[in-house]
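Database export, one record per block. Field names are fixed; values are copied verbatim from the stored entry.
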Amino acid sequence: MTLDHTEGLGLLGGQVPAWSARRIAALRAQRGWTQEELAEHSGLSVRTIRNLELGHVQNPRRSSLDLLVSALGGAGGRPPDAERAALGHLPDLREPHTAPVGSPSVVEHLAHTVRANRLTTFLGPGGVGKTRMALDVAAHLGPGFRDGVHAVELGDLPPGGGPEQQTAAVLDRVRRRLTRGRSAAQGAGAEIDTGTQALLVLDNAEHVPDGVMGATRELQAALPGVHILVTARRRLTERLGANREIRPLPLEQAPGEPLSAAPAVALFLRHLGAGSPAAAELDKDLPLVAELCRRLGGLPRYIEFAAECLRAIPIRLMLSYGPTPEMLWSNDHALLRHQRSVTDSILWSIDLLGADHRLLLEAVAELPARSFVLEEATAGYGRRGPNPLTLVSDLLDTSLLLPDEAHPYHYRAAPFVAEVVRRSGRTTPEPGGPACD
């Protein structure tokens, strides 16, 4: 699980003071933890912790600091407020905060939903910011759970297997997470305390739906004080808990604000970095940045990929080429393999479905118009499988198809889906291959 963003509210006066960075390292050393162990306890990535300790992160996000405080304060016996003060005289971290995937009111609303339901699922396409929002909400709610927040990464579990095997795999990860403090002393057989009061985040669960739902039923029966927050690209259930869709970043600024304040544009500029040469050039090209964000569908991860590529390629040239899926990738190995490029992310979603869905997507990819009605898509599908109308809801559910909000019963392929489907016979570019290296 990663949380590598440095946007936020300027909690530490615009940058992390060196003594605060040293304090994080000192508290970790007091507990005898490596950076990897602190990552395991806090739910942050090793890369984020390393950058925080080195003082490389400007304006760390409130949720990152709250998760660190929860891990470091909870382990050493000092009250969390004292640790917050030691880490930089921080304000109350439970206050609502600005997140890159939603306004404070959105975070508040989602936090209320998670608190009111023992199971909540955040849904949305790959790259929309489900994990970030889940961590923001978890940091917001963490102080209300006696045993804190526990994040469990499921994205690297192998797909397939029967429901029992999936359930066992998910429960094993949950057990190891919830018993991590006792496992060393009691061995691998340490049992979860039935009195646990915690928020459990099950991240990237779309490929093990049977396992997540089986584990959820067992956990809810055995642990009445545990609330579960799942992130997934598709619905896992309509009968348990609440489903909430995480939306892409808005492309328009609020009335009276500059274009740079539009959430999608603001994320692009923050990720690019104020000190980069490209940032200075873009001050006069903000309409081009807005157009690029529009073509990227307002998806935060796609925007970050484009910002990384823009360090080597001028924005006008990038727009003249599309951009294309091959230009949008990252060499960040803190990301799961299917999260490191637009192509891999889309193929991961397609692979969740069957061959018949792919045939329908291939028909959609060949349509000349951007927006279409179902009759146009099914005309090219033929009679090679089940009624294609029964497949459309699955494609909408995984956000591979999107409704055209201006025209009822009109649809369009999500950004880059048609291109990836047409080119999917080609090898996905490895990091180091594209021109924006």
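Remark 1: Confidence is low (pLDDT under 50) at residues 1-19, 74-100, 426-435.
Remark 2: DSSP finds 20 helices and eight strands in the chain.
End of record.
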